[in-house]
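May I ask you for just one protein sequence along with its backbone structure tokens in two labelled lines?

_____
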Amino acid sequence: MDMTTAWVPPMVAAQRLIELWLSARNRRRLLSRGGVEFRPETYRTMVVLHALFLASLTLESHPWAVPRDPLTWGCMAALAAVTILRYWAIAALGEFWNTRVIVVPGARVVRSGPYRFLRHPNYLAIVLEFLILPALMRAPATLVLFSAANLAVLRQRIRIEEGALRGCADSADRFGAPFVSRNPENGYNGPIEAGKHRREGSSMVGTPRKSAESEEEYFARLEFE
């Protein structure tokens, strides 16, 4: 006898809406503390990707019924574990968790929660969700197409965020030497919390920016180095 998976898309959609609300609230708080948002134009790509993924998953898996077999039970167990990992990461970051890349003066790398063991636990959870959900709902085309797209988007996102993390004085051992940036810290989907930076004047100590290069050009160049 088959079991229904019609509850899965609404559940995922509800989670994402709650996360968007939480992110917006945290963003307002971080910006009020002098935070600077990095590469905001890349955020829309991530939102569109997740919306299209959910739509494709819903359409391909119709009529939303799967057999009660080991694959189904295994996917449900894995989905529960991944969800726990995702919200453990969000809880560890607290108000610094965000779906955007926001940098606030003064920060240090979070080494609590799942960040004691993993460099990007939240992104690991997202990668696994893009595999597990289509496998659970028997949507192979969605699994292949959107898993590949998700990896490409996350690759860019991680490079942007790790660039911001290099501005933290205590993150050099984990993310490489710091680089010059005004007001870097992070309140995003990555590991950071309140602390102190090494400073030289009004900029972070690190690799100098080219004299004629704007901040936007600098970070764009860093992304492709």
Remarks:
- The first strand starts at residue 2 and ends at 4.
